[in-house]
Known about the structure:
- The chain is mostly helical.
- The chain is built from six helices and no strands.
- It has helices at 15-29, 47-59, 64-77, 85-96, 98-108, 111-126.
- The two termini are 24 Å apart.
Amino acid sequence: MKATGNTPPIQIKNKGAWVGLERLRWASHFNVPMAQSMPPGFPRNSIQVQRALTAVMILHPEKLAETLAAVYHASFAELRDINTPEGFMPIFTGIFGEKVAKEMMIKATGDEVKKLLTAKTEEALAEGSFGLPWYAGK
């Protein structure tokens, strides 16, 4: 949002209420578990969990979808704070086991992950992204 100069939709008068209502309608329609309220403090700085998910993409890409689904469920269905290691490490440990989860946390703080996440963010901006989530078809 910062790179594009946009205001988060939930912070725009009337749009926030509409987004909240539509979010619940779509969740119900597609049978996606969703809490009635948004996660406390949303939107938050999610750089740490983004880096951890980037580490998953590098080390265990076959588990990225499962991990991302678990992170989203914890945040939007259970209203857990997933933006710090204390919040997302239990999720990663449940999927990968303690040893591999710790290895990913170490990887997430390294330059390779930081550079890849920056590159992917720049790629999304170049494709016209104005916020998240952003999907590009090929």
